Amino acid sequence: MKFKINPKNCPPKNGGGNAKLVINASLVLSVLCGVPSCTDEIENEIVENNAKMQEFDASDGTLRLGKRIPNPYSLKVVQQAYNELAEQSGLRSCETLAPTHLYLKFAPKNLEELRLLESDTTLYFYNYPLDVELIGEGGGYHDPSLPDTVPTYQYVCVPIDHPLPEVEYEVLDEVYYEEEEGGLRSGSAISWEQLEEKAYLLAGDSSIISTPETRGSQWRAQGFLYYYDSRKNASEPLVGVPVRMRYHLITYQNCTDKNGYFRSEKKRRGDCKYSIEWKRDAFRIRPNTGLSTADYVIQENKSSVNKTFRPDENINQWFYATVFRGTHHYFYEDVYGLPRPQNNMEIRASNHSDKDNGLFETGGSTEVHIYRNDRNSKEITETVFHELTHSAHYDKTSYSTYSNTKTIIKDSWACAVAYVMTVDMYGSNSRYYDKNQYTGLIIDLNDDDTTYAEEYKTGDYVKGYSLQQLWNVVKSSKTVDAFKTNLKNFYSNETEQYLDDLFSYWGW
After folding, report:
1. I need a surface site. Which of 41, 43, 179, 240 has the fewest CB within 10 A?
2. How far apart are CA 104 and CA 1, in angstroms?
3. Residue 347 half-sphere exposure toward CB, CA atoms < 13 A
């Protein structure tokens, strides 16, 4: 069934917001109880799907999509399961189940429509169909029938009455699912546990009852994610990564803690598929030339996951993990009370070399670009901090103010913040500055070192200006002269007698 959204036929917009479409059960066909051909249809579907062995290459050459697999939560399957259980139990009346969810395939036409889908953080969109076999580990899948300039299809399971944005979609299947254990919401004598198990068996999936010894047993999907730091030559916990734990169409998600550990809040039966997306509510990481969020299918396994992202195993995913780690730190960890980067930040991570290590792009849209350039973890992370500092500066002033602020101020400020935050993460940092654009003046205002940041020459006797104080000066100063004046007027400092010498050294 297809429901095509035409903007001219959509409900009127209210208050300038996006018009919403609400899916109602009346829009979909109910499956009638007792249809004698249902079992045959399911069996035929299994045979037919097993004969379809289409495989598609992912963009990174690792993830494959294999044969389609029956969905035990399909309303058709669950209804047949209910009918058979009702007959076995001797129930005189047979209930017609109504769909609780819909399995949808969205077709965003551009990045704006993709972002519109992604803005609903209560839904879990996937770049690939949820009713196919996943082969191997990888990410970056793009449907081969679509050009690279168009976002790939987005697959999702949504509650029946969930509001949807104005993006073209197709109903792939009607779904029945009970979140809570016990009886059905209708009050039937048949329990949801019984119904779910029967539906799994009808769909040809015995993982829910794997052995007589484990029949009915429940377990929590869980695991650890680690990151190999190429500068420290050591593995460390990967913090804050949202991990998806999927049972056919049903998804649970939890973020890794400070130890890199995650687990589902709900115990389940059956096999689980683990995957991640390199994003949080505040930001998302995309490939430099791709439109979808960078993602990764870890593995399909009932046991717990233990995964380390290493550059020698998958350089692309290791790079995404590097960028994620630095970005997550800036958004969610202690950054001396400094402003966070702008919300809903788009970060482009390019594994290719570029003349620059990073770029903060303003104009019609704002994006941060990070280039790997064969650098180690520390070097890439410092670039992430640098460019995100530009984003915070831009977001907390204005386009006009930021654009008219002298480049030497913007880049010297970003250098200072990146330097301090990198020291916090690595314990030390090398200082490389110049006297044209990326000066060390602001870090010299902050540190207690008596040597200049560039050449380590004795003579820097200024110290003790906090990063918060310096930020207040930066955001209020468009020119070098204004920066000098504001610094002297805003704050008293026991070393301010040496300010002129410091400014002179750096050519301010």
Report:
1. 179
2. 10
3. 36
